[in-house]
Design brief:
The complex is a heterodimer. Chain A has 1 helix and 6 strands. By secondary structure, chain A is mainly β. Chain A has a single domain, classed as 2-Layer Sandwich (Folate-binding fold). In chain A, the strands form 2 sheets. A 4-stranded antiparallel sheet of chain A has the order 3-4-5-6, with no helix packed on it. A two-stranded antiparallel sheet of chain A has the order 1-2. In chain A, a hairpin with a 3-residue loop joins strand 1 and strand 2. The model of chain A has no long low-confidence stretch (mean pLDDT about 95). Chain B is built from 12 helices and 18 strands. In chain B, strands 1, 2, 8, 9, 10, 11, 17 and 18 form an 8-stranded mixed sheet that branches. In chain B, strand 14 and strand 15 form a beta hairpin. In chain B, helix 2 packs parallel to helix 7, helix 2 packs across helix 10 and helix 3 crosses helix 10. Chain B is globular, with a radius of gyration of 21 Å. The mean pLDDT of chain B is about 95. Classes of the chains: A mainly beta, B alpha/beta. Chains A and B meet through strand 3 and helix 1 of A and helix 11 of B.
């Protein structure tokens, strides 16, 4: 089980959280303007990287707040967390 | 290839078994091949076998970054069944079961396919209705599946606790008698031996690091840890690492890779007659021919390539198994491990062409790829050789996520599978 660093409550066990999947996938402002390929890209295409992954977490059984995290998908180590709406921190390295 | 038979076995028995040769060669890669398969698991080796056997291609190589069968082919719980709800899935998985039924003879290699029956338990009214719908749908597709009452499940699997006062009471079950298990290592070895005998080069410890494309966009070869290798066609059969391999060709996939865990107990004498699944409590259990109880758990909620998952996932499964089978509460678990499974949004696989000319992909099997091995390999070989899908895998395109023609087994089963 992961120890998830909630930026508001501190480190808590993973069972208190829901992982919300890949971060920074914005809903297109004007869906009607998209063709099927672009809409499929928004709905279904995911990066699933081996290395650093920006993802959303919800502290469901805690403060109830969403936050973004940068986590290494090989070691499962959390590198940093940041607020929803903030850009992905510029951290190099994929291990 | 020296065929296995009673005379060769007797001859070797008298010869202290010193006359057996290696089952496949260990070749150095040639500069170029007609077809490269990336991924030396059972699906990839099987595809190479059928390309050579049924489509007459001889200049084929399988590239494996580790050793063959060291990935998900050796990490699954070996369950085989075809009782899927939708017509497309039923056709695909039944194609596989039919090939399983003759696979040991086909490969001259005992894959220990055992049709001991797969029983899926219903624990609530929704399960009952959903499974009965599956039974009727399967029968319309010519696939055996039958409904068992609570008492009949106990008759079929006497170890089952059907008391009405347990946490997840058993209300009945759906039984596919032609379902069962096979020895997963033997499947890999059998296909490797068969493919090698037909001239396929199996190249291990050879990780693909780039995919090269020509001016017209078509693939021209790959860069590997053992040097560049040219290719006219490339089939990607890389399971959990498909997203990365496809990214080398500039294709973004509708996939996410999660750890899926399994575990085995200490080996004991035969004590469990069938394969038992419970979607509601998420437990899979059977007994291997070595005597270990083989138990499958669920996936973790986050993308990971760590090949290990959270202990709470396995604990949840073991809690359920101990309640359903009180006799197992004192069993010791020997090993647990994780495999990285590539999951599609509709929980159905992708087998077909890609936007890149000469590049084909077989992926997205999620938590249930082993059962489909021969069928998947067979139709993937057809797709690569003819540059068009076999009727069985025609619906399982990458393009279905654009057209919206999803095959939503996730909704049908209400569980990853």
């Amino acid at each position: 089980m992961l120890l998830v660093p909630c930026p508001y409550c501190g480190p808590r066990p993973e069972v208190e959280f829901r992982c919300g999947g890949e971060a920074h996938i914005a809903r297109p402002a004007d869906p009607d303007a998209l063709d099927d390929a672009a809409w499929a890209e928004y709905l279904f295409a995911r990066t699933s990287p081996k290395g650093l992954h920006a993802e959303r977490w919800l502290h469901a059984h805690g403060c109830g707040r969403w936050f973004n995290a940068l986590r290494n998908t090989v070691s499962d180590a959390f590198i940093t967390t940041y607020e929803m709406g903030q850009p992905r921190p510029d951290i190099a390295g994929d291990r | 290839m020296r065929r296995f038979s009673l005379p060769t076995l007797l001859a070797e028995a008298l010869n202290a078994h010193t006359g057996w040769s290696r089952q496949w060669r260990n070749p150095t890669p040639k500069p170029a091949y007609d077809v490269l398969i990336i991924g030396g698991g059972s699906h990839g080796l099987g595809a190479a076998y059928y390309l050579a056997k049924e489509h007459g291609l001889r200049n084929i190589a399988v590239l494996e970054k580790g050793w063959i069968g060291g990935g998900n082919s050796g990490r699954n719980t070996t369950i085989i069944r075809s009782n899927y709800l939708y017509d497309e899935s039923a056709a695909l998985y039944e194609h596989a079961v039919k090939l399983w039924e003759g696979l040991s003879q086909e490969l001259n290699y005992n894959v220990m396919f055992s049709q001991r029956g797969v029983l899926m338990l219903a624990h609530n009214q929704h399960d009952v209705q959903s499974f009965k719908r599956h039974v009727y749908s399967n029968r319309l597709n010519g696939i055996d599946n039958e409904w068992l009452t609570r008492e009949q499940t106990k008759e079929f699997c006497p170890q089952l606790n059907i008391s009405p006062d347990i946490r997840y009471p058993v209300l009945g079950g759906a039984l596919q008698r032609r379902g069962g298990t096979a020895r997963h290592d033997a499947v890999v070895w059998g296909y490797a031996r068969g493919a090698d005998a037909l001239g396929v080069d199996i190249i291990q410890n050879c990780e693909v690091t780039a995919i090269h494309r020509g001016p017209d966009g078509a693939v021209t070869g790959v860069e590997t840890t053992r040097g560049p290798i040219g290719a006219k066609k490339i089939g990607v059969s890389a399971a959990g690492h498909t997203s990365m391999v496809m990214a080398m060709a500039g294709v973004r996939m509708p996939l996410e890779s999660f750890p899926l865990q399994a575990l085995v107990s200490e080996p004991v004498k035969p004590c469990f007659p069938c394969v038992l699944m419970s979607n509601a409590v998420h437990a899979y259990i059977s007994q291997s021919d070595k005597g270990e109880l083989v138990i499958g758990a669920g996936t973790d909620q986050y993308v990971s390539y760590s090949q290990q998952g959270g202990l709470h996932i396995t604990t949840h499964t073991l809690d359920a198994i101990c309640e359903l089978f009180p006799q197992f509460t004192r069993m010791k678990m020997l090993r647990n491990w994780g495999g990285i499974v590539d999951v599609t949004p509709d929980r159905s696989p992708i087998i077909g062409k890609t936007p890149v000319k000469g590049l084909y992909v077989n992926c997205g099997w999620g938590t249930g790829g082993f059962k489909a091995t021969p069928g998947s390999a067979h139709v993937f070989a057809h797709t690569i050789a003819r540059d068009e899908p076999h009727p069985v895998n025609a619906p399982f395109t990458l393009d279905r996520f654009r057209t919206g023609r999803l095959i939503d087994e996730a909704a049908a089963a209400a569980v990853a599978h």
